[in-house]
Amino acid sequence: MGVFVFLPLVLPLTAWPVARLAEHHLHPRMATWLLTGASAVLAVCSTLSLALLMVVGTAQLPGNPLPDGWSDPEVREAVPYDEVAGRIAIPTLILVLASCARAAWRHRRVRRRAGRALEGLPATSVVVLPDASPYAYALPGRKSRAGVFAKGRATGGARDRVVVTTAMLATLAGPERRALFAHERAHLAARHHRFLLTVQLAARANPFLRPLRTAVTYTTERWADEEAATSVGSRRVVARAVGKAALISRGAPSVTLAGFAVVGPVPRRVAALLGPAPAARSWPSLFTGAGLAAWGAAAGTAASALSSANSAVTLFVILKAATPL
Questions:
Q1: For the chain, first and last CA: distance in Å?
Q2: What gap in Å lies between CA 23 and CA 269, rounded to an integer?
Q3: What mean pLDDT value characterizes the chain?
Q4: Alpha carbon distance 69, 237 (integer Å)
Q5: Number of other residues whose CB lies within 10 A of the CB of residue 275
Q6: What is the mean pLDDT of residues 165-185?
Q7: Nearest CA to 51 among 311, 293, 274, 228?
Q8: pLDDT at position 277, please?
Q9: Secondary structure letter of residue 69 according to DSSP
Q10: Using one digit for the tens of pLDDT, what is the confidence trace for 260-288?
Q11: In terms of DSSP bridges, do strands 153-154 and 149-150 run parallel, antiparallel, or are they unpaired?
């Protein structure tokens, strides 16, 4: 096992360059898929490495429930330097799992609360709330089933809905309202909440992945901006709508729900919308900075997966040999 078990814990650093360059040099759709995929794989490999180290550490604890052969001196010699790290990995893995579970539970709770708040309202794809606080966000629903809607009234959050307040609509002109609705529908059509939840869980699994979470928050908004600009037919109208909404909006109720005006990246979004549309390439050229960073992140992700697989197989063979049949 050796040093290979530690590599997935630090290989997320290889994705930092692409997290910065993808925002400016890749199409938002491609950047979102690339960064989210890399985050998911790197997070899984990192967690697997912690689990492997935890097995080694647990085997050395007195009164452990594992077979006696797992703490045999030959096992310790086969996995040098992993005993101390293994004991440290036990509380670390517990904290990682608890943090991920809490994030997933919070996301589910926010969605359920938002769905319950809309119960009894007309079963329309757009819900306008009489609220003095200006905000708008996309609320993803579940697949509808028979009996979910009755007499034109929604009995739960079974369908995708765009939630907007009267205060937000009063701020925007007619074309800008169309841009807002097109933006939120793009979030729902592309299921951006899944990308956001994935990178949030990945960042909790390994703090080195936090720059990728920040980047995906931006690229999903840019993706929706570009879809809205195509739908409305004017990039300037979308830029004006985003800028106005950002000045007064408080955003979505959860970081894993896509909102129209996330305050942090708004100036960059407006600047991007005032420029030319990004080119939709299938993969960036290796002879560009973004391409080199993308290939570096892909190589780091592949190395992380291979290191985790190597460590898992090695530990399995060692422990299997040490365990009496």
A1: 23
A2: 10
A3: 79
A4: 69
A5: 10
A6: 90
A7: 311
A8: 85
A9: G
A10: 655 557 888 888 898 888 877 766 667 67
A11: antiparallel
Residue type, 191: R
Average of per-residue pLDDT across 308-313: 78
The pLDDT of residue 143? 53
Specify the amino acid at residue 135.
Y
Amino acid at the residue 225:
D
Could you report the per-residue pLDDT of 126-163, keeping only the tens digit for each? 888 888 888 888 888 765 443 343 444 444 456 888 88
CA dist list (Å): 179 to 175, 229, 249, 271: 6, 7, 16, 16
Q: How many residues does the chain have?
A: 325
Copy the structure tokens of residue 181.
């609705």
Which alpha helices (DSSP H) does 69-173 contain, by range? 73-78, 82-117, 166-171
| Amino acid identity for residue 27 in this structure | H
Written as one letter, the residue type at 219 is T
Task: Write the single-letter amino acid at 254.
Answer: S
pTM beyond 0.85, yes or no:
no
Q: Which two tokens stand for residue 155?
A: 């009995």
